Amino acid sequence: MGRPRLIDKTIPAHIDQSSIPKGAYWSRTDRHWFTVLVEDGKRKRRKLAGPEVRLSDLHRILEEFAGVERGTLLWLCELFHETSKFKALAAKTREDYEAQLKIVRTYQTKRGPLGSLRVVDLTTPFVQRLVDKIGGEHPSKANHLLRYLRRVLNWGVTRGHCGKNPAAGVEQAVERRQRRLPAEVAFAAVRAEAQAHFPHYVWIALELAFLLRLRGIEAITLTDAHASDEGVQTNRRKGSRDTLILWSPRLRAAWDEAIRQRNAIWAKRRMPVPMQAIDRLVLVNVHGKPVTRRALSTIWQTLMKHCIEKGAIAPEQRFGMHDAKRKGITDTKGTRAEKRESSGHKSDAMMDVYDLSLPRTTTPGGV
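Above: the chain sequence. Below: its structure as tokens.
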């Protein structure tokens, strides 16, 4: 997403400036709307309409220039993406929806590209077959697309762009539940490879996710403010309770190394050090900037591929950063209640997901 448009007082008052379609520009001097096209390798302005044009007509005219047929699924999706409702969504949601829009543009059906199909011709059985086909190999991908179509089509119904929502009532693809528990030997091998061949934040994030029982995003957003003389207070999301994890030699070593690496990078690049502890991230990348969720995910996949190709782990031993949290909870000593307290989970149902340890008991009566 680019920067939001600045309010231009010369634009006619009847135009909602937050909903101006992408590619439409206002000329202050000539007082008309124009777009920029590339013809014969050169960028050229093309007038769209005068100042009296309505916003809906401006969308339609621009679509004609772009070659998007009105009434198609692609037309509806792109219309939704230009609205203030879309722009108000969380950044991660917008990112996911942009990925789904690419699928709408490129996915081939028997009747042509998915985006070229007219909305009025879409039926619930068609969408169900689409989900079933994609979900056969990629259930998560199919469900992301289904949720996106439901939202766009529902938006289209309420705005009068289509008469029904054919994605309503469609069954989701059954996703495979991956509850992987890394074996100690595989976990140690991956950590060693990360420490030897990858940026420092990779192995430290893995170590903190395990020791503090955190998700990857929680590990890379820890700050100096989370540490105290007693230990590290977690910053859990999704409604889980925070806990204070007392210092252990292993936790202290990982934390101190993260601070040392961060300070060295900041000093080398002569970056200003935030005064407030809450603003000083523990983990930064090699440029001294915050580690993003996407960057961590990408480099993790590269790490897994590296470990498998090198023979450090077998393909079936592959695991995700999130599985380090599962290992941390499973390896915690104590009763189920004590494990739940340490993980911050509020329900026993979540413990069934994260605690994969085998209960130890005796024979009846101890005989």
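The mean pLDDT is 86.
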